[in-house]
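Give me the fold.
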Amino acid sequence: MAEERVQPAGPVGRIVTSMNGPGSARVGTQRALIDELVTEVLAPLPEDRRTIVGLCGPPGSGKSRAAGLLVGALTRAGIETGLAPMDGFHLSNAQLDARGARGRKGAPDTFDVAGFRELLRRMRLRRDETVYAPDFSRRLDDPVAAVHAIEPSARVVVTEGNYLLFDTGGWQEIRPLLDLVIYLDVAAGTLTPRLVRRHRMGGRARTQAHDWVREVDLPNATAVARTRGRADLVWSPVP
């Protein structure tokens, strides 16, 4: 069965038209941007259609926090919502070790992109069943199966990840399965301290954390930034 992509063209089109053109950033607090999205774009969509929203951006841009806030805002608006993060499809450390790729963990080819694609297809095509989605545990530093349940009643599913807009390595099959993609555009100078703090909290020594950010995270961030222009909306959140 072919995937059917919902086109929320009217509401999204009105917001994009109010900007300086596609790809220009909307500036505001994250909560204000999310409230606008819920009120002007997602709430008016047909109740009998499921909409999959993707939040994209470089590592350290706040995607997970934004996804949590969006799910909360949708729930408060009475819109049943599911969550299915891309990071649940990290290859396990055992698989990375077997492939000699542990030192590049987080790069585009260290994910099960085909598994992620099939999850998105199931969520779009099988609204008669509960679909379970994995997530990534920072405590275990490994993916964990069936953390999230997307119930048949879910009108909106939120996913988030670095590579939703990539067009190589199998990732090109992801974008057509997403109805709306929002790119989180944050100042490059804020990424390093956020990422170092994350790795320090995960148990890395200070020097190791800085090395990982410089050698792995920031090159990935540069690659992700090149996909900004493929997003439907760009957010530039401010405190």
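The chain has one domain: 24-238.
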